[in-house]
Design goal:
Length: 265
C-alpha cells in the first residue's frame, strides 16, 4: 500500500510538471539526465521520445547549460543548496534562449546530494524589451551629442552594424527630387555605392524602392515583417524561386555583390 501511494503521488507530480509551461529538469550530481518535462524538451529541441538518460550535462553543453551554470550555478547549488540567476539555453537548431533559472540540490539526511532539479523560464521578451530600451537611449544620447545630421547618421550607422552584426549597413534619405541616396554607410565598396546610391522612387525598380514607398510586390510578402520591412536571409534562394517576369522587378546588385542576407527597414 505504501508503494502504491508513492507511485500515485509520483504520477500526480509528473502530471503537474508536464502541464507547466516552465522548463523543469532533474539530473544526477554527475550531470546525467533523469527527467525533462514537455516544456523543457520543446525549449531545447529534444524529442518527446528521446532517452535523456544517455545525455549528460557536460557532454551536451551548451545545449543544456552555459558557462554560468557549469562554473557558478551547479557548484553553488551543491555547496549552498540553491542557486538562481540568468543563463541561456542553446537549442539544437542553434537558437539561443535567455532564461531565468533556479537550481536546487536535493540532499539526503547525511548531506549527500542525491539529485539536482532546475526550473527555468523563457525571458526572451523581457530581454528584447531591454534591448529596445538600450537602443532608444543610445540613439537619444547620440542625438544630443552630435552637432549635425551627418555626424548623427554616421554614428547611427555604425551602431546599426554593431547591433545587427552585419558586415555592411547604410541609411538612405529620401530627398525632394525622389532620390534615396545613402546619407551614411559603412562596409560597401565604391562600385556598389556608385551603382546603388542614386536610386529614384519614380524611375527605378527594386525592393529598396518598394519598402520606401510601402508598395511591396506579392512575391516579397513571405520575407516581409509585420512592420513592412524586407528581411531576407538567403537572397540567392529567394531569386531562384522567382519567375522571369518577377526577376525584372529587381536590380540584382545585392545578389551580384554576394550579399546573402539583406534587410531593408
Amino acid at each position: 500500500m505504501e508503494r502504491k501511494r508513492a507511485e500515485e503521488a509520483r504520477a500526480r507530480l509528473i502530471s503537474i510538471l508536464e502541464a507547466t509551461s516552465d522548463f523543469v529538469a532533474f539530473a544526477s550530481p554527475e550531470g546525467q539526465g533523469l527527467y525533462l518535462n514537455h516544456a523543457a524538451r520543446r525549449m531545447l529541441g529534444i524529442g518527446q521520445d528521446e532517452d535523456i538518460s544517455k545525455l549528460r550535462i557536460p557532454d551536451t553543453h551548451p545545449a543544456w547549460v552555459n558557462e554560468i551554470v557549469l562554473k557558478e550555478g551547479i557548484p553553488t547549488a551543491i555547496r549552498e543548496g540553491i542557486w538562481n540567476g540568468e543563463a541561456a539555453f542553446l537549442r539544437r537548431d542553434g537558437r539561443e534562449i535567455p532564461v531565468s533559472q533556479v537550481i536546487l540540490a536535493h540532499k539526503s539526511s547525511t548531506g549527500n546530494v542525491e539529485f539536482l532539479s532546475t526550473i527555468a523560464r523563457d525571458i526572451s521578451e523581457q530581454k528584447e524589451e531591454e534591448r529596445r530600451i538600450r537602443i532608444r537611449n543610445a540613439l537619444s544620447e547620440l542625438f544630443a551629442k552630435k552637432a549635425s545630421r551627418k555626424e548623427y547618421l554616421d554614428a547611427v550607422v555604425h551602431l546599426l552594424r554593431e547591433w545587427s552584426n552585419c558586415r555592411c549597413a547604410g541609411i538612405r534619405v529620401l530627398d525632394g527630387k525622389g532620390f534615396i541616396p545613402y546619407e551614411s554607410y559603412v562596409g560597401f565598396d565604391q562600385e556598389f555605392w556608385e551603382l546603388e546610391n542614386w536610386l529614384s522612387i519614380e524611375n527605378d525598380q527594386c525592393a529598396c524602392i518598394r519598402v520606401v514607398t510601402g508598395d511591396l510586390d506579392p512575391q516579397e510578402l513571405p520575407v516581409v515583417t509585420s512592420g513592412g520591412s524586407f528581411c531576407c536571409g538567403n537572397t540567392v534562394r529567394f531569386i531562384e524561386k522567382l519567375s522571369a517576369e518577377e526577376r525584372k522587378r529587381y536590380r540584382g546588385v545585392c545578389v551580384q555583390k554576394g550579399f546573402l542576407s539583406v534587410a531593408i527597414i
